[in-house]
Amino acid sequence: MITSAEFTETLARFATGVTVVTIAEGRDDIGSTINAFASISADPPIVMVSVTSTSYLAEVIDRQGRFAVNVLSARQKAIAGRFAAAGRPSARLLLASEPHHRGERTGALVLSAAAAACECEVAQRIVAGDHTVYLASVVALPRVTGEADGPLVRYGRRYRTLG
């Protein structure tokens, strides 16, 4: 069980960063850059992700019910671009040259150099216009090393860093 203090210390302060959501899908892995991610509750730890309802990512989240969120560090702009590109290959191929590991609770890919990461299980699904909002319980906080770099943010159609 994750405490509210652990959640706040490791994730809540990064909740505005650019994130990559990854999901273990059978023999493959998928992932996508998303910009709508937020910390909703510290006790119990709950986050929100929003994805286009007609996307393959939404279809797989609905089917699997669990995923990992990687808050990208300031040095991971290229990864954000790779996961945002149309027609992208498997997440494993996109991360072939990046240190990563599988989350213990979800089996999803976790970027070792992310600013923060969490493994999540869907608690509630809400359709809002052309997007689906997932409220997800945080079930694990994998160790990552990119916190000192600060988060990557998106503003004015460009990736930027804070500070």
Automatic annotation (TrEMBL):
The keyword Oxidoreductase is annotated on this UniProt entry: yes
Entry keyword Transport: no
Flavin reductase like domain ranges (all copies): 11-161
Sorted UniProt keywords: Oxidoreductase
SMART domains the UniProt entry points to: Flavin_Reduct
UniProt feature coiled coil, ranges: none
Cited Pfam families: Flavin_Reduct
UniProt-listed InterPro entries: Flavin_Rdtase-like_dom, NADH-dep_flavin_reductase, Split_barrel_FMN-bd
Full protein name: Flavin reductase
Species this chain originates from: Thermobifida alba (Thermomonospora alba)
Higher taxonomy: Bacteria, Bacillati, Actinomycetota, Actinomycetes, Streptosporangiales
